[in-house]
Design goal:
Helix content: 10-25%
Structural class: alpha+beta
Strand order of the largest sheet: 1-8-4-5-3-6-2-7
Distance between the termini: 64 Å
Strand content: 15-25%
Radius of gyration: 20 Å
Largest sheet: 8 strands, mixed
Length: 139
């Protein structure tokens, strides 16, 4: 009976450690992660630096770059309650911060340094996790 009790306690301890490792992976800069399971996939679009000045800058004058950031369509913004500065996780690509709108309402747009940088590997993508950024301080 004593061995069974020790086994049960050790198993509980191991399971607790595994769960804390999973939760630890789901924290970005101290912000809570919301796991989404909408199951929808969105078409990928790209914009390029040679398309003009407007394609190089986001709506707040932020410089766009191919290593970070993403544009999200207005319908996706509304359905997921997103804002500029929020983070989304796209399987196969990773975490990206929303820094602009996509020109297509149901699309996700990447700033690419060359043609088919994203569309060739990921013609459609899903959003599986969201981190809502903290509200900016009142000025």
């Amino acid at each position: 009976m004593k061995k069974l009790l020790i086994l049960l306690i050790s198993l509980t301890f191991v399971c607790t450690l595994k769960a804390s490792d999973i939760i630890g992976d789901l924290v970005i800069k101290g912000l809570p992660v919301k796991v989404l399971s909408s199951g929808e996939s969105y078409k990928v679009f790209e914009q390029y630096p040679w398309e003009g000045r407007a394609s190089k800058y986001g709506p707040k004058g932020n410089r766009l770059h191919s290593d970070y950031g993403v544009g999200v369509g207005r319908n996706i913004f509304r359905s997921l309650h997103l804002r500029h500065g929020d983070w989304i996780h796209i399987p196969g690509i990773g975490w990206r911060q929303i820094n602009e709108f996509c020109s297509k309402t149901n699309g996700i747009e990447f700033f690419a340094s060359h043609r088919d940088e994203y569309k060739s590997q990921h013609p459609r993508v899903t959003i599986d996790m969201v981190v809502f950024a903290l509200p900016s301080p009142m000025q």
